[in-house]
């Protein structure tokens, strides 16, 4: 069975030119296998990039906490994100949609509601212990 996907050439010697069904099926199978490999890798790398960006934001929160503690009268951390000043800009949320909370008990820890509790525990950031 021939599928009528004719190219610009005319049929030669009575044989139609085009792609046979088995050729189309082989191309589709190869494409499917490549997509089965590429798509999970794409989503995995996207999740990894969001996690890294979240941890960078947690480091920025830690830096702002250190500045807050240095300037505060009681020399203590704050648990309110609104008290922190990160270069005059608001603290960006987690790129995955989570929100950051501050655990000011010693040692200072920043948690992400989206990433905290994941199997790799990348949602908790402890300064001078974790790096991003
Ligand atoms: Zn996060």
C-alpha-based Rg, rounded? 28 Å
Order of helices and strands: EEHEEE
What structural category do the secondary elements indicate? alpha+beta
* Mean pLDDT over the full residue set: 82
- Give the strand content: 5-15%
Low-confidence stretches: none
Shape: rod-shaped
What ligand molecules are bound, each kind once? zinc ion
Determine the N-to-C terminus distance. Answer: 58 Å
Strand order of the largest sheet: 3-4-5
Please give the count of helices: 1
| Main sheet record | 3 strands, antiparallel
Helix content: 25-40%
DSSP E strands, number: 5
Characterise this structure:
With 132 residues, the chain is α+β, with helices and mostly antiparallel strands. The strands form two sheets. Strands 3-4-5 form a three-stranded antiparallel sheet. It has a two-stranded antiparallel ribbon with strand order 1-2. The model has no long low-confidence stretch (mean pLDDT 82). The protein has one helix and five strands. Zinc ion binds next to loops.
List keywords for this structure.
132 residues, alpha+beta, three-stranded antiparallel beta sheet, 1 helix
Question: Would you spell out the secondary-structure blueprint of this structure?
Answer:
Layout: E1 2-3, E2 19-20, H1 21-71, E3 100-103, E4 109-112, E5 124-125
Antiparallel strand pairs: 1-2, 3-4, 4-5
The structure holds zinc ion (ZN).
Zinc ion binds at residues 54, 94, 96, 98, 112, 114-115.
Short description:
The protein is of the alpha+beta class.
